[in-house]
Amino acid sequence: MPFADVLEEANTNSTAALYLNFSSGYRPRWFGIPRIRAVCNTINPQIAGYFTTHTQGRFGILAMDFADANQCGLIIKTNFKD
Fold it and tell me: Domain span at residue 64?
């Protein structure tokens, strides 16, 4: 399930549920060691794009690997009305 689908589910379903989502991934390299840079370069722009267009809502807890200040700022802003 794409990560945006679970964020939409948290935003539109019952407020009685707490959603715990995550934005990690795995691409194996030699000996099963993950390719962290490849995963970050794929997922992080998707997160920034999503929260650039979804500026208000209820998205649950979003655990992130290798988040940057831009992504965190966009997510934090969803908690406040303009």
Answer: 3-77
As for how many domains the chain has, the answer is: 1
Distance CA 57, CA 54 (A): 7
- Is the residue at 20 inside a domain? yes
Phi and psi dihedrals of 28, rounded to 5? -70, 150
Q: What is the 3-state secondary structure (H, E, C) of the chain?
A: CCHHHHHHHHHHCCCCCCCEEECCCCCECHHHCECHHHHHHHHHHHHHHHHHHCCCCCCCEEECCCCCHHHHHHHHHCCCCC
| pLDDT tens figures, 12-36 | 887 788 888 888 777 777 787 777 7
